[in-house]
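Feature request, filed as a ticket because there's no other form

It would be nice if the structure record came with a short human-readable summary line next to the tokens. Right now we just get the raw output. Example of a typical job, pasted below so the devs can see what we mean:
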Amino acid sequence: MRLPKRIQLKYNEPGILKGHTPNGQFVTVQHTQSGPSGYRVLWDDKWYQWLYSDLVENELGIKVRRKKSGDQVGYPSEAVIRALWRYFVDLYNRGDPNVDYST
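Raw output as currently delivered:
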């Protein structure tokens, strides 16, 4: 049985992605608009608009992009929740059947 072809998502595509993180946590990421405030995450039955990078990296196992030069070396270079969105977009675009997308 052939699976239906998926659309290829862009990182700025609004919608909802659901799936498991590398550390086994099930999360829902919602993207509604551009900018850091356009994302929120449902994790452990609570919605979050902001998460700390250490929490996302240590508890969920998703790497957050960090600045490599300038005065803020080591600080996140993207909204931390956007790192979750990016992770799930990449999995979805690779055809992972365990990642769901909806609008």
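Something like this underneath would help us a lot:
The mean pLDDT is 88.
The chain has one domain: 15-93.
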